[in-house]
Amino acid sequence: MFGTWYTAALLAIESQTVIALRLTALAGGGPTAQTEGERMVSEKIDAATEALDTLMAGGSADAVIAGYRERVRANAERLGRDQLISQKP
To answer: What's the first-to-final CA gap in the chain, in angstroms?
Structure first.
């Protein structure tokens, strides 16, 4: 409805939340940070591969952005949940 620019802008805004949550997890150090760093790299490779597959199959930029937004949303939920669990006394 609003166009590709709008969904791309939403992706950029939503990604900032995940970046902040990931930096918090990484700053804590230890095994949690190690696991998160490894997960982050593998997820980025997987997302880029999925985006390339979508484009090679004739998909649109909107489809690629939608795929990235799903991944960002899932990470935000997981990281937010992890942050709440680690803050419990």
So the answer is: 45
Beta strands in the chain (DSSP E): none
Is the dihedral angle over the CA atoms 49, 8, 72, 60 positive or is it negative? negative
Q: Are 19 and 36 in contact (CB under 8 A)?
A: no
Among candidate residues 16, 74, 13, the one with its CA nearest the CA of residue 24? 16
Tokens representing residue 23 in the block? 């930096």
**C-alpha 41 chain-centroid distance:** 11
> What does the DSSP 8-state code read for residue 58?
T
Q: pLDDT per residue over 13-49, tens digit each?
A: 999 999 999 999 899 899 989 999 999 999 999 999 9
Over residues 68-87, the pLDDT tens digits come to: 999 999 999 999 887 766 65
pTM for the model stands at 0.83
